[in-house]
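Hey team,

Filing this mostly as a record. A colleague (T.K.) asked me to run one chain through the structure pipeline before their review meeting, and I want the input and output archived in the tracker in case anyone asks later how it was produced. No errors, nothing strange. Just documentation.

Input sequence:
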Amino acid sequence: MATIPQVARVLQTVLGPVAERAARATGFVRRASKLTGARFVQTLVFGWLAQPQARLSQLAQTAATLGVAITPQGLDERFGAASADCLREVLEAAVQVVLAADPAAVPILHRFTQVAVQDCTTIALPAALAAAWPGCGGGTPAAGAAALKLGVRLDLACGQLQGPYVEAGRADDRAALAASPPLPPGALRLGDLGFFRLDELAAQDARGVYWLSRWQPGTALFTPDGQRHELLPLLAEAATPTVDLAVRLGVRQRVPARLLAVRVPQEVADQRRRRLRSAARDKGRAVSAGRLALCAWTVFLTNAPPAQLALREALVLARARWQIELLFKLWKGHLRVDEWRSGNPWRILTEVYAKLLAAIVQHWLVLAGCWHHPDRSLVKAAQAIQAHALHLAAALDAHPRLCQALRVVMRCLAAAGRLNRRKSAPSTVQLLLALEAEALA
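Output structure:
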C-alpha cells in the first residue's frame, strides 16, 4: 500500500535530488543560482498542479512559496531546450517509481494478479518541434507536424501506473509501451485494437497472461477441428442471443481463444450503422455490407477459461477499459496537459513535461488517499489535491511537515465525495459490483 511516509519520501526524492541531478546533467544549471534545478522543477509542477492555466506571475508566486524570489520575466528567461531536457529526465525518473494502493473492493478484480488497461493518447505540438517529436502529418504542412504519443498502463485493482512513456506522435502504439514491464502470470490485459497482434497474444498466452480484446476485422477464424469460418455466418448459426465458442485465431498462429458475442438491441445496431455511414461519408468511402451486418453484435475474444471469466463478466469487464480514457480525460480536461499560454516551443515542451509530472504526483496522492474506494471520483479527488498543492510545496523540504500536509490532503480526499449512483445508465463500478451480487443471489 502507498503510505503517507512512502509518498513523502518519493516526492522529496524525485522533486529534490533527482531533479537537481537532471538539471546539471542537461546543462540547465551550470553555476550556483537562487533558482536551483530542484526549485525550478518544484515551481512548475506544483504551480501547474495548483492552477493548470497559471501565468508566469502566478508561477513566480509559487517560487516565492518555495523561498525563491524571481520575477516573471526572470522565470521566462529560464525556458529553453535545456529546461525541456531537464523536465523530461525528471519525468522519466518518476515513471520508474512503483507505487500501489490497497486493492479496490471489487471482487472480480481480485481473481487476477493485475487487471491492466493500456492505451495511448497524443498531444499535438508546435511544428517547430517536428525534428524532435515528428507527428503523423495533417491537412496542411504545419498541422500534425509534431506530436507526442503517451503510452500508459493502469492496474485497475491496485492503481499502479506504468507511464506515461513518451514517444514521437508517429510511433506505433506498441512502441509507446515497449518500456513497460511484462505482465505477471495470472494478469488480465484489456487493450484497444492498436495492441491486437496475434504473435503477441500467443506469447502472452504462453506466459499465463490472460487477455480480453474486441474482435479485429479480418482475423482468420478456425474451430478447434481446424475448419475455417467467417465470423458473420458463424454468428448467424447461433440459436441464442449470446455466443461463447472455442476457436483458434490466425492462419499461422492458431492462438486458442474464446469467441464471445452478444446480439444488441435494434436501436443500438441502427445507431452504430449511422455512425459508420457518417464516418465513411466524411472520408469519401463506402461501408461494406459485412460491417453493417456486424453492427448487430458486440464481439470479443479472450483466452481466459469460462471458470475464470464468464461471458457476462467479460462483457462488463470490457467496459472497464474506458477507465484509462477517463484518466486521459482527467489529464487533458483538468490538468490541461495539452494547453499552454506561450508561443515559445521549448517553453511549451517544458510545460507539457511538467504537467505530466504533476499528473503522476496527483496519481500518487490518489493511491494513498482513496484508490481503495471502488466508487471514488477522480475528478473530485483532483479538485481536492489542486486546492492543497501549494500547501504541499511549502512543506516539501521537511519530512515531518510534509507528512502532516499529506495527512490533511488524505482527509480531504476521504471527504471529497464518490461517484453518484445512476439508475438509467449505471457506471462501470456499479456493474462490476453487481456481478458479485448476482453471484451471491
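Quick notes for T.K.: The chain is about 45% helix and 15% strand. The longest strand covers residues 115-125.
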